[in-house]
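Appendix B: complex inputs.
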Amino acid sequence: MSEEKNWRYAFFLGCVIPNRYPMIERSIRDVFEELGAELLDMPGASCCPAPGVFRGFHIPTWFVIAARNIVIAEELGVSLVTGCNGCYGTLRDAWWDLEHDREEKKKVNKLLAKVGKEYTGKFEPKHIMQALYLDMGKEYVRGFIKHKFKDLKVAVHYGCHIVKPSEKRPWDGEYENPTFLDEIVELTGATSIDYKEKFMCCGAGGAVRTAVKEVAADFTREKLVNMREAGADIIINCCPFCHLQLDLGQVEVNNFYKDIIGEPFHIPVIYITQLLGVAMGMDPSRLGLVKNHDLKGVSPFIPIQPFLDIVKEQLI
Amino acid sequence: MSENIEKYITRKVYKGTSSKIAQKFVDAGLEKLRSCINCGTCTASCPSGWRTALRTRSVLRRALTGDESVLSDIDIWLCSTCYYCYERCPRDIPVTDMIIKLRNIAVEEGYILDNHFTLAKDIFYETGHGVPANGENNKKWRDLRESYGLPALPPTVHSYPEALKECQFLMNEVGFKALLDNARKLKDERKLAEEKKENEKEGK
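Resulting structure:
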């Protein structure tokens, strides 16, 4: 890699990644390091706060806490990057809205001044997919791929807030049929398969999961039925809340809807940097793919062994 | 005029309409809904409505006419904020954001589900995270972090108590704490009134 690499980001963890799926945190940190991108910690960051639930309770609270989080990155002098569509939705929308609403920005800064902080909005919040696809670029990432899958069928799940609202996102207004995640997946030799309602929501967001778990799980049931019909070996996503809903939610679907789904589902759910990392030749243990504990009742809830078997068979 | 014409056609005011609520809707910017042409694209695009009773067009219509029953309807909490309605609305109404504003008014009026209240108050306000890893019950998650070579607690508010205090201070200043306390009070009052009504009915 002769190219000058000077990517530096503040790593916004959010809640679900560090506190429920730390293997995702492990894989993002190590894949970015491998790619020559520096991730700085954001000391004292909080919940983003979540765009459907906490914004649904009180928009002014959502604005000021989101702005406080962005300020932590501003103080480090870089854009923040998040691996979560929900955090991205909040931080990107709050940033965008504050850039277009001076009155709101004034209000937020009046509050932040009381804790000695000032929000400027000079760095756009980014998603790790934005860093990989737009900052580094597909060709740069391709240069790191050492092993390719020969036959791996992937059901790609984008999630919602990574592409919508489209005018506040960096994907040239594309929200009906984006391809950036499929393109990154296919760098590894895997095939991104078509399936019905591919871009449909997982069901977890917008306070739905907390409100009525069965409703969230019914969205997930529909997605899983369509993924299985299309012959998916694994699910790849770029959001820990979708990840949780497709993983833990898969167990719930098998329970709530056992009478209508036929065979229970057991499709491994893998985060994009975990897939990318194995194709880059990284040790699976650096990617949170190797279980190194006897803890009960922790993630992942659907065994990922079938994926590890494919890795062993096709990559090593 | 025949009773049915009055009942079904000339009626302009919906049941339960409150001018106070209608004014709140206007203040929140919900008057944008006036450009709605009732095409139903929002409803047709709604993956929640494909399986639940949520009918986005109906929710918006009720808001537009100041029908306050929309605030206590669980439907407004079954929107997963997927933003298809927002994207596809031919009148450029930011539909999803309108639903979020409706939720804000609902909470102000004390209509918040128990699960959401707990999440807001006992989890988000108290810990600074929507999904925390601190406390006795979450030890397994800290152990899981350590098993992947990460510190037991992330470098967030979990590791910086003064940062949590700062978040709580901001939440107090912006009125979040007061909003929740008020919602609790209204919720409790409403429950009490219902119980009283129930008791009176049984008494008779």
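The mean pLDDT of chain A is 96.
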